[in-house]
Write a structure and sequence with these properties.
With 266 residues, this protein is α/β, with parallel strands linked by helices. The protein folds into two domains: 1-86 and 164-266, Rossmann fold (3-Layer(aba) Sandwich), CATH 3.40.50.300; 96-161, no CATH class. 33% of the residues lie in helices and 24% in strands. It has helices at residues 51-59, 102-112, 117-130, 146-159, 176-193, 204-210, 236-251, and strands spanning 5-17, 24-36, 40-44, 66-71, 87-90, 164-168, 196-201, 213-218, 222-228. Strands 5-6-7-3-8-9 form a six-stranded mixed beta sheet, sandwiched between helices. A three-stranded antiparallel beta sheet has the order 2-1-4. Strand 6 (164-168), helix 5 and strand 7 form a beta-alpha-beta unit. It is globular.
């Protein structure tokens, strides 16, 4: 894993107009962090803490009000076209096109990138096989289980060979057993392919299972706590200690939106 920051947020603020037209509200508050190449970072926080706004800033879907977002030295919103094929996204829902088969759904990104038909077909089939979907290439989404549809979604994201994978609560709609298996499979594939990943979740155990590092957000989005998840931190007393700290930090958020909590690093 390179020590050079692959992703950088530098004092980022994002404000939106209030629905009633009276001023703005702040969704992201002077957010700064760095992510190294090859790192999986899990972003944890309560609903409404600004995780998804951070995600949209990183994906280049919205522009920061102030501060700078950089990915591989480029600004996602300003240089949106530069990131075609460089960022893969896995959403909470699989977002498969119901009129396309599993294979055709995985082919979509490759077709957008104008990859030759023969090569694209081989790549799509290979990723479906790696996700355990051999024999289901010609099935339509309605014929697949929720877990299988999300596997197709993951295959679609990996197939374009992105440098970065952004995941917005991708397993939250699945039963726990299926989600657990897919989490392990996702981490294995990211590590094998040498990708960098940002994984948003509101489940503490999921963050601890997936992340090399956890960032806990308070609202408006700011880092209240960080923990590095080495082998010793993923089980036993080390895991329990981090769980206790996360619970403590999250419990402080209610009624304390005005003042940031100092970040702690484990």
């Amino acid at each position: 894993m390179s020590e050079t920051p692959f992703i950088r947020f530098d004092d980022v603020v994002k404000e939106f107009p209030r629905p009633d037209g009276r001023g703005t509200f702040r969704a992201v508050d002077r957010l700064s962090f760095q992510i190294a190449e090859g790192e999986i970072v899990a972003v944890l926080g309560k609903t409404g803490c600004g995780k998804s706004t951070m995600f949209n800033l990183l994906a280049g879907l919205i522009e920061p009000t102030s501060g700078k977002v950089e990915v591989t030295g480029h600004q996602p919103f300003v240089e949106f076209n530069f990131f075609r094929g460089r960022i893969g996204i896995v959403f909470q829902n699989d977002r498969l096109m119901p009129w396309r088969t599993a294979l055709q759904n995985v082919l979509l990104g490759l077709q957008i990138l104008n990859i030759g038909a023969k090569e694209a077909d081989a790549v799509a089939r290979r990723w479906l096989a790696r996700l355990g979907l051999t024999g289901h290439e010609n099935d339509y989404p309605h014929a697949l289980s929720g877990g299988m549809r999300q596997r197709v979604s993951i295959a679609r994201a990996f197939a374009v060979e992105p440098a970065i994978l952004l995941c917005d609560e991708p397993f939250s709609s699945l039963d726990e057993m299926t989600a657990r298996d897919l989490r392990a499979e996702f981490v294995r594939l990211v590590k094998q392919a040498g990708k960098t990943a940002v994984f948003i979740t509101h489940h503490m155990n999921e963050a601890m299972d997936v992340g090399d590092r956890i960032m806990v957000f308070h609202r408006p989005a700011r880092i209240a706590y960080e923990a590095r998840m080495d082998a010793a931190s993923k089980e036993g007393a080390g895991r329990q200690s981090i769980q206790n700290e996360i619970l403590k930090v999250l419990s402080l958020e209610a009624g304390d939106e005005g003042s940031p909590t100092p970040a702690a690093v484990v």
